[in-house]
Structure prediction request, 78 residues.
Amino acid sequence: MKFGIVFEQVNDSSLPEDFYYAHVPALGLTTHGLGIEGAKVAALDLIKLWIAEKKSNGESIKEPKESLYSVIEIENAL
Prediction:
């Protein structure tokens, strides 16, 4: 199975500057890690745990559909 992951730099002064969120939209999951690679590893671990929990409860896991990403610019937002 392949899952799309969206990375976003964390804007939180309580965490180091190099932390990134890893969002898995198909599953509604978010985690974070140090750098893109750290966030990717954290996402992989979280997805594996999510799948294991679904299997242990006898729930089916659907193949994710295509992931698309876009950016919208809002002028004068701040």
